Amino acid sequence: MPLAVYVLGLSVFALGTSEFMLSGLLPPIAADLGVSIPQAGLLISAFAIGMVVGAPLLAVATLRLPRRTTLITLITVFGLGQVAGAVAPTYEVLFASRVISALACAGFWAVGAAVAVAMVPVTSRARAMAVMIGGLSIANVLGVPAGAFLGEHLGWRSAFWAVGAASAVALVGVATLIPRIPLPAERPRLTRELAIYRDRQVWLAIAVTALAAGGVFCAFSYLAPLLTDVAGLADGWVPTVLGLFGLGALVGTTIGGRVADAHLFGVMLWGVTASTVLLAALALLASLPVAAVALSFLLGVSSFFTAPALNARMFNVAGAAPTLAGATTTAAFNLGNTGGPWLGGTVIDAGLGFAATAWAGAAMTIAALALVAASLRLHRRAGGGSVRVPVLDHPIVGR
């Protein structure tokens, strides 16, 4: 695996910490800015909306720009967005800073994923994506619990300052260690890349990814109040449990990345099924502290076990447009990260309680499972021919 892929994974650590750390900061943010916890939860959706819009938008806007320069610019904007969040005087300003940070984060993911996939053989795509997703896993193991710890002891704003500092470190790594990539002989054409959206397998991959991610984050976004208000754990337990979720994510990513290239549909089917069972168990057993803690860890394993396969599947069916494939995957995950917290907040506002977010999440993953089965049927009817592979001499743009 090229060193540059690991550099991208380390950069994703800063991005992922910012994206997920609000799950442990919702109560202090809500109290400080005078909003309800479901309203504070919309900050998670705001970031996800920015990712959904930003991934394809910035992928198209930067299609013919140098890759390395684009990555440097995007990580810089992201870091400045964290500083803006740290000094935000109102909920509205914080909301805007989250959207801006998300746009930069989405662009980095889209371009970075295309770069990572282009630097490895076709048979190692899932492993390359597992390295990048591993940055998210480490963010959940270290960054998110650290953010919750800082929020509890130094105020929620300190977590934003910390991510800003991590972004500066990532900027140095990208600027010094990402190589210049020669321009391809044939410059990309937007019309050719957009043609991937004529393929129903691409739309099935989008829907599966969105529903699988949304189901998990419907419950995960409100994990902190679930642990304290339903399971009866002290506030000091929240960083620990978030860390366990992240540890499970790291385990799941490692295993999924190693087996997904050879068993793509098997990983998706078993991973989404496991997430469904675990979400239902969390809804039933959330009042038991030991069960809530254990299920949080296992949910991290199942959700991130599936992630490399979901990424690799999109690059397989949309291989003729690697930049938009990365952008589409990012947008799909964050469609789920938008819809999941929104659905969870709706369930809470309806008076059904924090544990009911897990039932809502399980409903989303059941739908994802049905669509995986539909995609597999189409794949078998095509005799495996629907999986397209790009010419690796022209996989990415810029340098």
Features:
399 residues; mainly alpha; 15 helices
Structure notes:
The chain is an all-alpha fold and 399 residues long. 78% of the residues lie in helices and 0% in strands. Helix 6 packs antiparallel against helix 11 and helix 11 runs parallel beside helix 13. It is globular and about 55 Å long. The two termini are 19 Å apart. 60% of the residues are buried. The C terminus is likely disordered.
Write the layout of secondary structure elements.
Elements: H1 3-20, H2 26-33, H3 37-61, H4 67-86, H5 91-118, H6 125-154, H7 156-177, H8 190-194, H9 200-220, H10 223-230, H11 237-259, H12 264-285, H13 289-317, H14 322-349, H15 356-381
Quick gist of this model?
Helices cover 78% and strands 0% of the residues. It has 399 residues and is mainly α.
Uncertain segments are 385-399
Measured by DSSP, the beta-strand proportion falls in under 5%
* Run of helices and strands: HHHHHHHHHHHHHHH
Oligomeric status = single chain
Mean pLDDT: 81
Helical region count? 15
- How big is the Rg? 20 Å
Which sheet architecture does the biggest sheet show?
A: none
Structural class: mainly alpha
Give helix % range: over 70%
